[in-house]
Amino acid sequence: MAQAKLTDFYPSSSSNGGGSVKSARTTEDIRIPADTDRAMTVSAFPHPRSHSPHASEQTPLLAGSTPTPPPPLTAGAGFEPPKTRPYLLRLSFLFSAVITWASLAFLVLICLAITHSQFVYLLPSHRGSLFLPLWLSIFSFLSGLLSMIYYSDPLDFPAGPAKLFSLLSAILILVDVVLVGVNRQLRLEEGWLTLILLIINFVSYVHSLAATSVLPQEDAPDLPIYQRQQALAEQVGFFARAGENLKSFFSLLTITLPVFVLQLATTVALALIMLDLILRAYDSTVVHQQSTDLYKINPSSFSVNSPSTLRHHDRSDDKGIFPGDFRLHLDCRFLGTPVREPRYIKTVLFDSDKGIPASVESSWAVDAMEHLDGNGTAYRLCIYDRPGYGLSDVAPSAELAMTVRSLESALVQAGVMAEIQSAVPLGSSFVLVGAGYGALVSRVFAARNPSVVESILYLDASTELTHFSPDAQTLARTWRFFFSNILGAVVSPLGIKRWLQIIFLPGRASREGRIFGTVTSGLNAPILRAALQESAEAHRHTSRSYLELKRSRKTYPDVPAIVLTSKEKLQSKAGSAWEQSQEWLVKIIIGDSLVRWDEIKAGGSRLLSGPVGRDSAGKALKQLLARSSDN
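The chain above was modelled as a monomer; its predicted structure follows.
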């Protein structure tokens, strides 16, 4: 045992109440273990008065009193052990990070799927326009990101408004979940993708509400940013206070106000989406009334590049809550004088121009065929809406081969193809009518099924020289396309145009008008999505649609064809290129099978936009049907 002798002056008082005197006192021998840390010195024993709140010169110190234990050994003066964040705080922050990254992954995949159709297969099933899932992925990403910002700087974060916005957003999302789950049409269109993103948003907003309500009271003092703010508040002096005020003002401009505006805008957008879903659920009764004309198309069941091998199959209904296929609208009806036992069946297959459902633009064909008398020949008109148009769901791709193969599948399920194929030797066949972009579809269909095509009518037909020309994609056209098509398509899930029409134009607002809306009306999100898909294949000689159209020249049938072109389009700015494309169609594609090529003063930019053009198209259709009956 080591031995040390410590001497100090301690105050003492007399036992008889006399005056206090200072006396020297020698401490008892203190034995210190030999293995005690050598760094401990006499200073490790502090003065008693420094630790006792009642210590004074009048306080006696008994010789047998136990000295105050020394403070724990530290790494240096002024050092404080780091505080560890609470376990729940770490877990909550990690949860926000997971939501943020998951939402970002969905956002990237959806953006890629909108511009490149092959990425659609990486997403859960979805038959809609993909723009509603795009908005939902943005909302969940922002919600998770704002939660992470709140954890890093809770003092500048507008926690009060954030609670209100999170609560309202969670309620709106919950209503959306109920609408999508209950309404059959919404459930089939939106599928698993929208439902998953709705659930992610609901969980994210509930978590944000809980975090903003609990964190300031319990866990905020343990955050580093909170401790730094407290240190700044304790500073004194003019410059210190000025610097603190400047930082607070900067935080107001960069964090508080932007977060408040962003949360307010998100809540308003969610309210608009909920109202649009309610309107879509109301409009879904139109689809239910014509559900007998919808046929299920399974893209995975056929190869888009294989030759057409059409066989009759029974129509199958939707199976499962969220099927992975899509539905195609095909309406076939017999017109003209009824024939009990027709010798021939002439089927007119009409495909409309880009951005216009065939159901909307087919009235001229109905008028032309309504009073036909074929003397033993039955006339049938088949109107089909390309994927995304009218009542048809959006397909994973708008490539020409995919579009034609989907049409073939619908014709097989409707029994039309079986009737024609079984009577081909007797003269039953198709008379194809293609307007604008629909002419490209008609050409590919004729090349894949040359034995059942009898004649073709081209109305303002698009060709390789116009639709796929790289020179046609100028900078001005790109900007115009962005603001008129892309921007309108992206904001379509908010339903702004639809509700403005209902409020300010109640006489023109109808469920049929919203379902069968054109691209220019901006009322129908699926057709905007389909138009973007078709435009993504345009102006590139490397696109699959161009390559398919190029391959179709080899098997294009040698059948009679009539070409009608609008004079107004020939006299437009792109009139020279359009005239060149029509000449190329007549000389290279049709050749000697041309019946006639007429330029019609239609009274509009499109041939079918005016009564003169529609009447000319009806006469040309009657001429082709008469030729087929005579033959």
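Residues 368 and 622 are 7 Å apart (CA to CA).
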